[in-house]
Amino acid sequence: MVKILIVEDEPEMLVGLQDNLEFEGYEVDTASNGETGYKKLITNKYSLALLDVMLPDRSGFDICKSARKKGIDTPIIMLTARGDEMDKVRGLELGADDYITKPFSLRELVARIKTILRRTSAQSDKPSSDAYIKIGKLNVSFEKFDAYSNEGPVKLSHKEFDILQYLYKNHGGVVTRYNLLDHVWGLDYQPTQRTVDNFILRLRQKVDTPEEQHIITVHGIGYKLVL
Ligand code: CA
């Protein structure tokens, strides 16, 4: 569901925007002053925010600037009161994605919203590096060092994550014990090959199902991960 935050202090304007955007099929959240708007923007996940520049307490510029400083990358369209070039430039410099000058037609606003949403959804369709990968009965995020199965969270040690990630990068191919020792432990500190085997044994209990083996032993050489 696409959720849009509107920060606008003029009640008629706020209600008008809310009604129209809801009519367009968007979920809408509102704030009628800058501080509330800012708090909502930095604590909730929105697909887009409309920020009025002229607010009684803090300006839309200020909200935009502070949110960007905090790393909030929600697309922002500034609603500027005047056709002031300085306002437009300033808004974009502070990290807004677009601006629209009041009075504007709703059709134009909706068109701008759609353009930005198309752009951001195209970006989020790209495989994200923190996406969970399915390996056997595990769903794993190597970015977050997190794993879970149908039965709930599964605890993996750092080394286990490293081994699994290395096997995953090379899945389908054979990884020798030497490769694993080199990549996971480093050449300076070398545990015995027996240590590797013990780690693999523990990983198997977390990855394999009774029906399916995913970490295959290649006798005399090493291991192979089959997805
Ligand atoms: Ca205003």
Would you kindly provide a written description of the structure presented here, covering whatever features stand out?
The chain is elongated, with a radius of gyration of 26 Å. The chain has two domains: 3-124, Response regulator (Rossmann fold, 3-Layer(aba) Sandwich); 133-225, Winged helix-like DNA-binding domain superfamily/Winged helix DNA-binding domain (Arc Repressor Mutant, subunit A, Orthogonal Bundle), CATH 1.10.10. The mean pLDDT is 88. The chain has 227 residues and is an alpha/beta fold. The two termini are 32 Å apart. The protein has helices at residues 11-23, 34-43, 60-69, 85-93, 106-124, 158-169, 177-185, 193-207; strands at 3-7, 27-31, 48-52, 76-80, 98-101, 133-135, 138-141, 146-149, 152-153, 174-176, 215-218, 222-225. Calcium ion is lined by residues 9-10, 52, 54-55.
